[in-house]
Specification:
Strand 7 and strand 8 form a beta hairpin. It is built from no helices and eleven strands. It is mostly beta strands. The termini are far apart. Helices cover about 0% and strands about 50% of the residues. The chain is globular, with a radius of gyration of 13 Å. It has a single domain, classed as Sandwich (Substrate Binding Domain Of DNAk, Chain A, domain 1).
Length: about 130
């Protein structure tokens, strides 16, 4: 059972989804899909997804749970000094959603339906409180 907090659908420019702790001051990691579909550092995770020219991507933010048949792309803690996580396109110009969390180092797990061309992504954050104001 998935405890869903939010869900949205967007075309993703560059085919890269970003999950970042607001105020972490970490540089954006380099993502090279020739080697990996994910890049991360202490404050940011980049995940390769379908490019907007192919189709939209459905992103679900959840507190807990894991759908059947998905692949874990990332699991770790992200520095979140402002207690806000942002989920956005890589630059943040096309869409950006912010979520309040209860910890400065929340655990974040990113799951996908297809690790090479993710059309559905679940971001599981046990410490998520809801949408940030």
């Amino acid at each position: 059972m998935i405890e869903t907090i939010d869900s949205f659908e967007h075309g993703v420019p560059w085919g890269v989804l970003r999950v970042e702790g607001v105020g972490s001051s970490s540089p954006t990691p380099d993502l090279d899909i020739a080697f990996s579909m994910v890049a991360a550092n202490e404050g940011c995770v980049l995940v390769a997804v379908l490019h907007l020219d192919i189709d939209k991507v459905v992103v679900t933010i959840a507190r807990e749970g894991k759908p059947e048949g998905v692949v874990q792309m990332y699991s770790g803690q992200l520095a979140t000094p402002s207690l806000v996580l942002e989920v956005a396109d890589v630059v943040g110009d096309d869409f950006s959603y912010r979520y309040s969390v209860s910890s400065e180092r929340p655990k974040v797990t990113v799951l996908a339906d297809n690790p090479e061309e993710a059309a559905k992504v679940w971001i599981v954050i046990p410490e998520v409180l809801g949408k940030a104001d």
